[in-house]
Amino acid sequence: MITKRNLVFLGAPGAGKGTIAQILSEKEGLVHISTGDIFRNEIKNETELGKKARHYVTTGGLVPDDLVAEMVASRLAEGDCATGFILDGFPRTLPQADLFETALEKIGRKIDLVVLFNAGEELLLKRLTARIICKQCGSNFNKIFMPPEKEGICDKCGGELYQRTDDSLETAKERLEIYNKQTAPLVGYYKEKGLLAEVDGSLGKDSTTPLVMEVVS
Ligand SMILES: [Zn+2]
């Protein structure tokens, strides 16, 4: 049983956060939370926050930081998160991190640990451009990090796998640039708070998972 159960996974796109979050959440009964899922649910369930968020989403604007932070905190206040959660890809900016801390205080929760996944840029680009998706069920695979059992075929439904055009090298470089500019400052932010643990995200899931288990134990 792990002792640190309220977790934030931090790291560049392609560093393996999502994959490890999925493994760890299944293993330890933590709720794996991405902001995309929260948006979709709140909007679908027509909550007060969802209605506000819909306004921004439908007009093509970015959902403001305070609203995102509130939506995440409200999700964490739900019963299934009581024994632990993994936030995957949030907070994304310093203002979000500050607002989120305040929102967490309001619901009497706190972050136990922020796990930073380190990986070199060359590898990140390689992984980001190796993503393949099932035409039929939308499952994600990765030619390098999470290859399907049979090449070109979805493990889950047998559908055909394809590469999205926006997984081009150019898009991958842009995503890394945005990460370095907006999200990387969170490393220093959480280090200062004594909440940061670093793991090598370059090793692949079988080697990185035990490293994560160690820091959250
Ligand atoms: Zn499929």
Radius of gyration: 17 Å
Share of helix, binned = 40-55%
CATH level-four homologous superfamily name of the domain at 6-120 and 182-216: P-loop containing nucleotide triphosphate hydrolases
Structural class: alpha/beta
- Low-pLDDT windows of residues: none
CATH class type of the domain at 6-120 and 182-216: Alpha Beta
Largest sheet: 5 strands, parallel
Report the principal-axis shape.
globular
- Going by CATH, the architecture of the domain at 6-120 and 182-216 would be 3-Layer(aba) Sandwich
Reconstruct the topology from this structure.
Elements: E1 6-11, H1 17-28, E2 31-33, H2 35-44, H3 48-58, H4 65-76, E3 85-88, H5 94-106, E4 113-118, H6 121-128, E5 131-134, E6 140-142, E7 161-162, H7 169-183, H8 185-192, E8 196-200, H9 205-216
Parallel strand pairs: 1-3, 1-4, 2-3, 4-8
Antiparallel strand pairs: 5-6, 5-7
Zinc ion binds at residues 134, 136-137, 139, 154, 156-157, 159.
Describe this structure in words.
It is a single chain. By secondary structure, the chain is an alpha/beta fold. The protein has helices at 17-28, 35-44, 48-58, 65-76, 94-106, 121-128, 169-183, 185-192, 205-216, and strands at residues 6-11, 31-33, 85-88, 113-118, 131-134, 140-142, 161-162, 196-200. It has a domain at 6-120 and 182-216: Rossmann fold, CATH 3.40.50.300. It is built from nine helices and eight strands. The strands form two sheets. The chain has a five-stranded parallel β-sheet, with helices on both faces. A three-stranded antiparallel β-sheet has the order 6-5-7, with no helix packed on it. A hairpin with a 5-residue loop joins strand 5 (131-134) and strand 6. It is globular. The chain starts with 5 loop residues before the first strand and ends with a helix.
